[in-house]
Amino acid sequence: MKLKVTWLIVISVIAFIALSVIQGYLIYNTYTLKRNAFIQNTRSEILNIDYNKHLDSIVDTWEETLKNQIADYKNKRTTKQIVLNKLRQKADSLNSNYYNLYKEELAHKDLGYAVSYKKNIESIVIFDKENDTIFPLAEQTNFKLFGNDFQNSKANSVSVSRTFSQYDYIDQTENKINTQHYNLEIKFKDLMYIKDKNSIVFKQMLGLLIGSLFLFVVMLGLFYYSLKSLMAQKKISAVKTDFINNITHELKTPLATLGIATKSLKNQQILSKPETLQNSLAIIDRQNERIQKLIDQVMTNSLKAQHLKLALKNVEIIPFLNHIVEDFKLSVEAKPLQIAIAFNHQEKELKIDPFYFSTAIFNLLDNAVKYSKEKAKIKITTDYNNNCFFLVIKDEGIGIPKKEQQHLFEKFYRVSSSNLQANQGLGLGLYYTQQIILAHQGTIKVKSEKSKGSTFTIKIPKIQ
Ligand code: ATP
Ligand code: MG
């Protein structure tokens, strides 16, 4: 049974984690798809921009400069580096014209979000007798022709294009003038950068995200609730088994004694002797009383605070406690007992139900003796603070491990390491004690360390 439940929990946890991972993966996939679709849409809008003659003519003006520079370069009047510098200067001077026109065209599209744009040069190559690359050159690999400045790595590509044209130049290098042809290849790359793309896509997915988060929380809640009920069921069944074992154990001795005593009544020899007959009847009576007491204990000690009908009255607290201690000392025979007392005489009276309150203190004293080794050493202290009465019962017994302390006041709970064979009980004493204290609007707390001893503190507010 125990193994089955453990497996059930393990499988449920794994299934839950797997489900969460799958859901996370699906959401991420949807996000990626939506993001790509969004980028694709923006790209199509930009590609649809009408490259009217104004835009084209600005590129043509720049190419005119390129042509002139190439003529100078071919006549060895300049270097590639200078050609590139001149081309950049020209691009800079034309940039605002080009970009403003571009922006105007983009505004017609009415996208509803900002898109930065630029036109880059990928390469400029002269083809004549041999190929001569003007750009890229050494470390110069980035050439923004027109548009905004932004990092290429953050951008999305819009399009790549290539022009291949034939041009002439006048060659003056060999003291005679002749016209030379060459082919010029220019590769362009248009890029765009949508600053808010992640948040735009995120907003588009908000409904889906909230929905799945809500479902996730509901699922987590249901999962937690089921696990909790399962654990509670498991605990209840363990407690029930313990209780049945304990009560059978408690009933065994008186029933066995009763059996022997009734058997002896059948014996003629005993029947003929009045003293032995009396003796057997006394045993039967005592055992009967013991069984009756045990059943009463289960019935009454299981009551809840709200079912206890308190008969509150002002009790002179010091004599009341002294009485309980005296009575208790008389009832203990099993081991040597030493009780130290430190009472605070500040106040005389406390409003309590003397019957129930003495039962609560008796239960605590009984435990202090039961869960001490050879000798029981107890200290009882009273105090007043913040309009409350405090009663502290401290023992030097076997103590209670930390993790068990939270369960002490539960019905039928017994600490498994408390040598339960030697110390019989039903696990009801502390439950009943707490219910009595709660009925008095008070609290009971425990502080304990294994092998060092335990301290139980009762706090009762002084009701005027
Ligand atoms: P009964 O119903 O007869 O009182 P019980 O003594 O086992 O049975 P509780 O008085 O409710 O039940 O105590 C619950 C458990 O708490 C005990 O079984 C014991 O393990 C632990 N315990 C209680 N008081 C002490 C103490 N003073 N020192 C160490 N362990 C204690
Ligand atoms: Mg007890």
Automatic annotation (TrEMBL):
Organism listed in the record: Mesonia maritima
Catalytic activity annotation: ATP + protein L-histidine = ADP + protein N-phospho-L-histidine
Protein name from the UniProt record: histidine kinase
Transmembrane segments: 6-28, 205-227
Alphabetized UniProt keyword annotations: Kinase, Membrane, Phosphoprotein, Transferase, Transmembrane, Transmembrane helix
EC numbers on record: 2.7.13.3
Alphabetized GO MF terms: kinase activity
Coiled coil: none
Domain of life assignment: Bacteria
InterPro entries in the record: HATPase_C_sf (IPR036890), HATPase_dom (IPR003594), His_kinase_dom (IPR005467), HisK_dim/P_dom (IPR003661), HisK_dim/P_sf (IPR036097), Sig_transdc_His_kin-like_C (IPR004358)
Class in the EC hierarchy, top level: transferase
Annotated ranges, domain Histidine kinase: 246-464
